[in-house]
Amino acid sequence: MDMICQSEDMLEQFEENWRKFVGVILSYSKTIPFQTKELKQILEELGDDYDVSTDNLTEVEHIAALKCVASFLVPKRKKQEKKDHHSVIPFLLIDVPNLTPERECVDSASTYPSIVRKFDADNSIAATYSIYVEEEDIIKCPDFISALYVVFSLHYIFNISYHPKLNDLFTFLQERIFEIPGDQKRISLTLSNFMVAISVASKD
User: Fold this and answer.
1) pTM for this one?
2) Mapped to the 3 state alphabet, what secondary structure does 29-63 carry?
């Protein structure tokens, strides 16, 4: 991880920016008039008993916020596409029980970096996070925010194209969380509308 986090300041800035957006994303998701079935399920699982102030956010809120962003920006899976039962956010975040064999943690056909969250069935042991590339556990991360930071940084440092289905999601992270300007002409209408909505919501 030290190879990726060349500066602790970069990780701290990312964490600060991400924490600011978590509450905005969750609040916006709950207040929009037309919620998809997927978004309703995310919010129902989250429940109402949470504190979105930046100092009290838990792993649950962080993951829920990213799932909400994905529900807006990641294209819906086609009916004929097989769903990976471990996949939380396709091609990005995967949940597997502890002791799952390495080769079963990720899709063997995927060459993109992804986050694997290993959890204990009865939650007696804290979840662990790793970055996988081509079925290999290459970096262990201390928490969810670090894992999200690292998986994006790998794309940026090694010039890895975003997965086509994650392009809007990663571009949102790039523009709003990492504050790295991109090519405005290549931003989709979906992403543009979402970023405007989040900007407005953040000022309320």
Assistant:
1) 0.88
2) HHHCCCCCHHHHHHHHHHCCCCCCCCCCCCHHHHH
